[in-house]
Design brief:
globular; alpha+beta
Length: 200
């Protein structure tokens, strides 16, 4: 696949990420069908970093006046949930961590558990209703995902939270940086630092 076609897919995927709240994998697949047809192989899709570059460009062009506040509100919501689930070593991932979240974005919180069932029991004990699903990401393998909604008055939106359950021994590998040296996720303390830096 040509570099120009790969870039076109990244641009189309970025719009789906911002406007529809799709995760990168789903956005790339949908964009590839739209731009290049059904013959696109997964190996021909743009890297996540390339899509993220286009997401940042799209936000700067179309959402610069609203996105910073939306990101702040979503990170505050994530911080509250990370405090509630502190015993399960929560790490914020996805757009809210990377700084590209908008009101359409779901929050992705990875939980690194001694016993993944413990997270479900914790939610039940707190009276929290959730759905159980899975994530078929080929790179990460199939993992359990607990999905719930949280109403955010400041945005007048019901925000989706995905709590992704991992074994504790996966934590070290999860903290490896991307090709540019940036982290893919961070714990509560790291999130607080990132929020403070954004305000200064």
């Amino acid at each position: 696949m040509s570099a120009s076609l790969t870039e076109a897919i990244a641009v189309a995927a970025a719009q789906l990420v911002v406007e529809d709240g799709l995760e990168y994998a789903a956005a790339k697949r949908k964009a590839a069908r739209k731009v290049a047809g059904r013959g696109t192989r997964s190996g021909d899709l743009p890297r996540n970093e390339a899509v993220e570059d286009q997401v940042r460009a799209y936000i700067a062009t179309f959402c610069a006046d609203t996105q910073p506040q939306e990101l702040r509100v979503l990170r505050e919501l994530a911080a509250r949930w990370m405090e509630r689930l502190a015993t399960h070593r929560p790490h914020l991932a996805g757009a809210a961590w990377r700084g590209t979240a908008t009101r359409r974005s779901a929050l992705m919180i990875d939980l690194y558990c001694d016993d993944p069932k413990g997270a479900e029991i914790d939610l039940i004990n707190q009276g929290i209703t959730y759905d159980v699903g899975g994530d078929g990401d080929a790179e990460a393998g199939s993992v359990s995902v607990l999905t719930l909604g949280a109403r955010v008055a400041e945005l007048d939106e019901l925000i989706t939270l995905h709590l992704v359950l991992h074994d504790l021994d996966e934590l070290r590998g999860a903290l490896k940086p991307d090709a540019r040296g940036q982290s893919w996720r961070g714990d509560h303390s790291a999130l607080m630092r990132r929020m403070h830096e954004a305000q200064s």
